[in-house]
C-alpha cells in the first residue's frame, strides 16, 4: 500500500490538522476492537496491552457491557440528578457493598471525581469551623487536568503556564513518610495519594508509607483520600488496591475502568464526611447518567461474579514474573527495574520509552509510556496466558533491538 491509499495516514493527517494539538497521536486510526484485539483503518491488527490506558478492563466490546448499554439505550438516556434512576442506584448499591464507603457521588471523569473529593475535604472542615484547607499531595503524582486536580498533580511540567494554581496545596516526596510527617499539620484538610502512581511511572507505594499516612491522618485529624482512578476495579489484583494494602481511606475516587470505556467517575466517602455536601454545594449534569451507570454495573458484576478478578490476579502474577525475567535478561545496563502490581506494571529503561512503544506498535503490540523512561503495560483484565506471552515476546525482542 502506498502512503496515499492509507486510511491510517489520511486520518493521521486530519488529526494533526483539526484537533487541538494537546496529544501527539500515534500514526494509526483504530476502527474496531474485540477482547484484547484492535484493528486499524488499514486492517492492521494489534494485541492491546494498554487497554485504553487501563480502562478497557473487560476488553473491547465485552458482550455483557454491550448488551447492558444497548438495553439501557432503548429505555432511558438522561433525566439529570433532579430525579433518581435505577441504573445509578444499582451501581451505587454495588460500589458501597464492595467497599468501605457509605455514599457515592457520580462524575464523568477521573479529574471530576478528584475535584469533588478535594472540595469535600475543604467543605468538611469548613463545617467543623476549623481552618484546615490545605491538601498534601506527592511528587510524581497525577490527579487530573482541572485546575484543582492539576494543582494537586505533583509534576510541575503539567502546571507550567497555567499558574496561578489553586493555593493551599503542598507536595512531599512519594514514599517518604518522614517528609510527609513534617508538612502534615493543623491546617491539613486531606492527604491525597495514589496507592500506586500510574502516569508518574508505575510506582507502588510501600505498605509502610500508606500505613504511616493513615496513622498521621488519624493522629493529626485530617482526611486520607486514595486516588484509585487507575488502580481500582481489579487492576492491581484486588477490587481496590486499598484492600491489598489493608489501609482504608476516608474518601476514594474511581474512573478509568469503572465503565470499561464509557466516561464515568465516582467519589466514595464515609457517611460523616459525605454529609458536608448538602444540597446545592456540588453537582453535575451528566454525573450518574443511566447509560454510563448501566455499563459500570455490568462491569462490577463481571469482575466479581463473572470471576474476572481472580483471573486478573493470576495473569498479574504471570506478567510480574515475566517482566522480572525480561529485566534480568536485559541486565542493569539497559533496565533500571520492572515493578508494579497485578496487571498494571512498568519497566523502567535507560532510554526513552517512546522508541519501544513505536517498535512494539510496528510489530502489532500496543503498550504506552508512563513518564519518559517507563514502558507501561495495562492489558484488559480478561487477557489470556497465550496472548500475554505473545505480547511479552514481542516486547522483549523490541527491547533487545531498541536498547541493543
Ligand atoms: C487518569 C487519571 C486521572 C484523571 O482522569 P481523567 O478521566 O483523565 O480526568 C486522575 N488520577 C489518576 C490516578 C489517573 O490515572
Short description:
It contains 15 helices and 17 strands. With 404 residues, the chain is an alpha/beta fold. The strands form four sheets. Strands 4-12-11-10-7-5-6 form a seven-stranded mixed β-sheet, with helices on both faces.
Structure description:
The protein starts with 6 loop residues before the first helix and ends with a helix. The chain has helices at 7-18, 51-54, 63-73, 86-97, 110-127, 147-152, 156-159, 177-183, 207-220, 241-245, 271-274, 290-304, 308-330, 353-362, 385-403; strands spanning 30-34, 37-40, 45-48, 103-107, 134-138, 169-172, 188-193, 196-197, 203-204, 223-227, 251-254, 265-269, 335-341, 344-349, 365-366, 368-369, 374-377. It folds into two domains: 3-61 and 307-403, Aspartate Aminotransferase, domain 1; 76-305, Aspartate Aminotransferase, domain 2, CATH 3.40.640. Helices cover 41% and strands 18% of the residues. By secondary structure, the chain is α/β, with parallel strands linked by helices. The model has no long low-confidence stretch (mean pLDDT 97). It contains 15 helices and 17 strands. It is globular, with a radius of gyration of 21 Å. Bound molecules: pyridoxal-5'-phosphate. Pyridoxal-5'-phosphate (PLP) binds at residues 109-111, 114, 142-144, 194, 198-199, 227, 229-230, 255-256.
